[in-house]
């Protein structure tokens, strides 16, 4: 579990986050939804200890994030950034193997057990046939899977993903989100990710947090918080909702 309690932060004299509270739990996919500039990425940087909040606290389970070493943090939490520009054309297998570093001693070489973990992850993600291809020469969806594989190799409790679908076509968006939902359910991972599309949140989230100008507008079950009224507050668009069985979808009112 990861939780933020009254987290606030100012950058360059401007308030970016204001008293943010949220909790993401094991076995669930929690989606952070909000427009550009709402503070989603900044919050993720705080949650992964890349930025330090001015006020408030962040906890992994019951431990204050500030009391964990970088190595301890890397064993418990893994992140997939919004942008990833590799400087070296690692093979997919080697990129995933990099995730084992927090589990190795200083100057230690990967052991057979580490390589078996990697092979199991490649099989789980359907990347075995791509294992010996350069990461820089596979598709966007495959790259995203490889980055998730690197995170899984850390054997974390918590997985943070900043807009993991932003550069993917519809097929790959669905593939990645189905995978994350399955990982949360089967491996009891705490999965927290940012999205732009409220319909994807309705389809895949267990909980949704709406962030508006650095403040939490609403949070709870998708069906309770992802509605025309809240989405209009976030994006300034008049919305309509349609229902088909248990499924609900939003679309903008165009006239």
Low-confidence stretches: none
Ends apart, CA distance between termini: 43 Å
* Secondary structure tally, helices: 9
Number of strands: 12
CATH-defined topology: Rossmann fold
CATH class bucket: Alpha Beta
Query: What percent of residues adopt helix (DSSP H or I)?
Result: 25-40%
Order of secondary-structure elements: EEEHEEHEHHHEHEHEEHHEE
Proportion of beta-strand residues: 25-35%
Q: Average pLDDT across residues? A: 91
> For this structure, what is the CATH homologous superfamily?
P-loop containing nucleotide triphosphate hydrolases
Structural class: alpha/beta
Model description:
- There is one protein chain.
- With 255 residues, the protein is α/β, with parallel strands linked by helices.
- It has a single domain (2-87, 155-252), classed as Rossmann fold (3-Layer(aba) Sandwich), CATH 3.40.50.
- It has nine helices and twelve strands.
- It has helices at 40-47, 70-76, 92-97, 112-124, 140-153, 170-187, 198-204, 222-225, 228-235, and strands at residues 2-11, 14-24, 29-33, 55-60, 63-64, 77-80, 158-161, 190-195, 207-212, 215-220, 239-244, 247-252.
- Strands 6-7-8-3-9-10 form a six-stranded mixed sheet, sandwiched between helices. A four-stranded antiparallel sheet has the order 2-1-4-5, with helices on one face. A two-stranded antiparallel ribbon has the order 11-12.
- Helix 4 packs antiparallel against helix 5 and helix 5 (140-153) runs parallel beside helix 6.
């Amino acid at each position: 579990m990861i939780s933020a309690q009254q987290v606030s932060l100012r950058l360059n004299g401007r308030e970016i986050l204001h008293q943010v509270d949220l909790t993401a739990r094991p076995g669930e996919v929690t989606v952070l939804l909000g427009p550009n500039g709402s503070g989603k990425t900044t919050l993720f940087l705080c949650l992964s200890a890349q930025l330090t909040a001015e006020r408030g606290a962040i906890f992994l389970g019951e431990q204050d994030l500030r009391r964990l070493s970088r190595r301890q943090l890397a064993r418990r939490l893994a992140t997939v950034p919004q942008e990833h520009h590799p400087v070296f054309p690692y093979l997919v297998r080697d990129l995933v193997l990099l995730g084992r570093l927090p589990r190795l001693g200083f100057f230690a070489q990967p052991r057979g057990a580490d390589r078996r973990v990697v092979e199991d992850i490649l099989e789980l993600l359907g990347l075995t046939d791509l294992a010996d291809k350069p990461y820089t020469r596979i598709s966007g969806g495959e790259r995203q899977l490889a980055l998730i594989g690197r995170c899984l190799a850390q054997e974390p409790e918590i997985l943070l993903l900043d807009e993991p679908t932003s550069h993917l076509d519809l097929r790959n968006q669905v593939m990645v989100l189905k995978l994350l939902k399955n990982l949360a359910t089967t491996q009891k991972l705490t999965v927290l990710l940012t999205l732009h599309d409220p319909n994807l949140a309705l389809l895949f989230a267990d909980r949704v947090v709406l962030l508006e100008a650095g403040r939490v507008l609403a949070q709870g079950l998708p069906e309770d918080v992802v509605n025309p009224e809240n989405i209009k507050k976030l994006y300034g668009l008049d919305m309509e909702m349609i229902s088909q069985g248990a499924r609900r979808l939003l679309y903008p009112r165009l006239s």
